Amino acid sequence: MSSAKRIVKLGVVALFILGVLTVAPGPSLAQGLLEAYVYQRGDGNQGIVDQSAAASWAQIYQNGNYNEAYIYQAGEDNWSLQAQTGSANRAWAASTGSSNTATQIQLGDGNALGAWQYGNNNFLLQNQIGSDNLATAWILGSDNSVIQMQTGLAHISRVSITGNSNSVNHIQFGYSTVLEITHVGDNARINTVRFGF
User: What range defines the domain where residue 98 resides?
Assistant: First the structure.
């Protein structure tokens, strides 16, 4: 099977998994309950959850070797999930505020994700399938939504939002595409799709 067909099939599977994860309601937590789970299979993996957030939930799942994952949550009612399959992947997520959601998924090798959310009611989804991809998101404000999806090799996506009620959807396919978005203001809708061949 050609590499491109394999990547497309992995992409379809990952999108299905993402659909299930993002449509399913977040865990229902009792008042003040903190939950954190770390599942790892392989060698040399590191997973850390640091929470000082009431009624929050965090989970790290790693399958492969030499992966690193870190979740930090402060505030209340925050929800974070990191899932990595492959080797030498890195994921970092920080949420400060209330009712923020962060989902980071990587399939492949040598990928890196970074996310910072400061505010309330923000939604973040980062998904990478392939190798040597990088995605970062900085969200300062409330009621924002950022979705970054990259399939292929050596993509870079950097998103920075300052404001409220903004939405960014960024999708990249192929290889070696770069997109950087910086937005300051409220109520913007930014949608991009890029192909690199």
Answer: 3-24+33-141+148-196
